[in-house]
Amino acid sequence: MSMKRILSVATIATMAVALGACSGDGAGGQTSTPPEGGGSAGESKTVGVAMPEQTLERWQADGAAVTQGLEAAGYAVDLQFAGNDIPTQQEQIDQMITKGVDVLILASIDGASLSTQLDAAEASGIPVIAYDRLLTGSPNVDFYVTFDNFAVGQQQGTSLLAGLGVLDAEGEATGEEGPFMVELFAGSPDDNNAKFFFDGAMSVLQPYIDSGVLDVASGQTDFGQVAIQGWDQAKAQSRMDDLLTSTYQQEQIQGILAANDALARGAITALQGGGYGLEDIPVVTGQDAELASAKWIAEGWQYSSIFKDTRKLADTAVDSATVLLEGGEPEPNDTETYDNGMKVVPSYLLESDVVTAENLSALLVDSGYYSQSEVDSGSSD
Ligand code: GAL
Predict the structure, then answer these.
(1) Taking CA 107 as the corner, what is the angle to CA 256 and CA 323, rounded to the nearest 5 degrees?
(2) What residues make up the domain containing 172?
(3) What pTM was computed for the model?
């Protein structure tokens, strides 16, 4: 890794704070020019980077990290956040194409909603990288950088079982038979990843549901019944409120599969409102290792999260963009899994880690992802 790249990694956290502070919750963006004396290859090239929203910390961090990496490599960046509004994202990408960006890095809101933009990019000879979420229904996607989404779901399912004591630290069955009352919260149905997470988790959990170790007392086990539109924390909270009223008046709920940290915190907030305390809060999973959840994991409110190091994803996107800008083809490590309906998109999949109270400091603080004071306060320094 060059010194420039090391420096870029070191400044990501600062960038994330700066972006978060100036942009608020809505749509918005920033355009940069390459820094003086920046890389050699890039000089006059610009990369359009479209992110879905910035209410979730992860997208702020992703936007900041990608921008920093590209600028360090000598490219200018047009970074836009769409406030989770599909027409806004379409318009932002249209404008990037009109302005003549050289590569597009796109984290979609709805992976199926950008076909017109992808056609226009193709017509203008602009390569497209799908970032984190697959772009579907179009042949005009050159590369996909993401984490292994099915494996993320498996980690979530395994972590739920470990938290309940059904599996031990090595992932071996303890013989604990339950039954444990659990509920499932999946991600947004328009996000291609959400089904992968759910299927991965259910590949681990279904046998335990079938054998009666886990009891989904609401009976809601289909993706369509448990998916939360827009990964919306408030919607998860209100579904949990409803479940407490409909299903858990007499019985205590003991476990929740939550597909990301926003859903986890929504469910936990409802449980707190329903009288659950630290001593009887269910085992709740998550994803993204957001600061507010890192704090709750340290305190015992949330059991686990999945740490997807956005610095690694950003680095992979930057490297792939650089190869495309130089006229090459990025090297995939998966050419089978991500069929977008029109083609199997060559992909580079990264590995994720389960975070619990035990390894939180090692994974998140020692790696420089967060400072200890950020974890303690649950927000950026
Ligand atoms: C997914 C992403 C997850 C999570 C979620 C909510 O596509 O892979 O890490 O952040 O979106 O935005």
Answers:
(1) 130
(2) 149-307+373-377
(3) 0.90
